Amino acid sequence: MSVQKLRSSTIFAVIVVCVAVFTDIFLYGLVVPMLPFALADRVGLSEADIQHWNSILLATYGAAIMLGSLLFGWMGDQTRTKQLPFLLGVGVVGGATVLFSLTTSLPLIVLARVLQGCSTAIVFTIGFSLLLDTVGDRHIGRAIGFTSMSLSIGIFAGPIVGGFVYDLAGYFAVFIPAFVLVVLEFLLRVLLITPTHNPGLKHALIHDDQRPLVPDTGSDGARQSPRPPAVVTLMRTPRFLVAMLGMFMLNSFMTTFEAVLPVYLPEVFRYRSTQIAIVFLSNTLPMICSPLGGSMVDHMGPFWPAVLGFGLITPSIMLLSLIRVPSTLTSVLLRLFLFLFGCGVSVAMPAMMTEITLSKDAMEEGDPGIFGDRGACSQAWGLSNAAFAGGTLVGPLYAGYVREAAGWTTMSLSLGAFSGLMVVLVIVFTPRRRPGVVQTTRIPA
User: H/E/C letters for each residue in 15-52?
Assistant: First the structure.
């Protein structure tokens, strides 16, 4: 294989996007364990203000992802090639890393978190739509499975590496692996040859067989009406909304555990930070098998993997309500339930991400030109990523409030009920057919 073919190959595109996902999430998590110390030692905040600003920085990151996803999703559909906006993401995350490493100003740290959120938005909108352009619908499930695996590894590795390096070598040493990854990511994105987006070609081919021999020019002006924006059209489609809600729910569940378990486990089991990290391995390790879940989606379509995934998540979260007293049995059950949860996510995540694309494609095939000449691939991913980011904001807030107000049992049962609701919605609105057979319903205006 020539160098040119390798740079434009599907395998290389998957590698580049997986590295981009890992790097972005890794860099976000890298500063999590040392951020409270940085706010105290470098910025000079009092101990009473650290929790407040730490929460604000998390919310700022989530808000930047939500808004940035919509902006960069629209931008991705307007460009002829996604190479330039994809490269822009490296500059954004590089700038955020420089700010974090050098600044002692609180406003600049907030700006750094905003830039990290924008970078995540670029990776999950431009990067994923670029991946679809290269891979195509046939193997999108497996490709998304690999990116889900990269996401899980980044979520787990970032805080561990950051905490270990900070304790061992200090603040500035933490950013050495960060800059190495940014440089590697820049080189890979430069080397990648992205497909050229040819506006209107797909729709022109679709219309060729339907074009009348004698065009009807008398009533064109009366029949043609301005189409609503692609974002509005997507949001009016129940199938697409269910896929978005699935992404929102999955991230809500994951961030709920990140926010609640580090507080709850020391209260019940007297666990220290290292033991808590080991507990998190129980639900993180199964997510490494996401490519297998993606292969299931490619062979069966999203319906059954989504039902299976949320069907595993529902009882695993509800059964966590049993973890109330310290014992060997409850310690083993805790890890077992979290393991089942991780297995459910590794199947449901590729299914919901693939369904985002398939539901958008179904709308285009059912009504050619519905999104205009440029399509709406990046905007579909932008909405999906905005929903995913919404889980970052809502999950921890909901779980923390319910646990304090009504207790651990109520929190676990209610979260499991939400997962059970997703099973019902998937059954009602997600087609059971394999990818390639399209079906869609749109809510009337």
Answer: HHHHHHHHHHHHHHHHCCCCHHHHHHHCCCCCHHHHHH
* Residue type at 46 in one-letter notation: S
Contact in structure between 13 and 131 (CB atoms under 8 Å): yes
Domain locations in the chain?
Answer: 1-196, 229-445
User: CA nearest 344: which of 361, 319, 377?
Assistant: 319
Fold for the domain defined by 229-445: Growth Hormone; Chain: A; (1.20.1250)
Q: What is the pLDDT of residues 267-287, one digit of tens each?
A: 889 887 667 778 878 888 888
Q: Which token pair is 320?
A: 């966590």
Name the pTM for this structure.
0.77
Contact at 8 Å (CB) between 304 and 423?
Answer: no
- Per DSSP, 430 falls in state S
Question: What number of CA atoms fall less than 13 Å from residue 251's CA on the CB side?
Answer: 22
- Residue pair 283/312 in contact (Cβ under 8 Å)? The answer is no
The token pair at 432 is 């059971």
Burial grade of 170 (CB within 10 A; 0-12, 13-18, 19 or more): exposed
Return the H-helix or E-strand segment holding 298: helix 290-300
Measured CA to CA, the distance from residue 435 to residue 52 in angstroms comes to 46
Domain 1-196 has CATH 1.20.1250.20: yes
The pLDDT tens digits of the residues spanning 87-112 come to 888 999 999 999 988 988 999 999 99
- 415 CB-near residues (< 8 Å, 6+ apart): 253, 256, 317, 318, 399
The whole-angstrom separation of Cα 209 and Cα 169 is 67
Contact 396, 256 (CB under 8 A): yes
CB 375 within 8 A of CB 77: yes
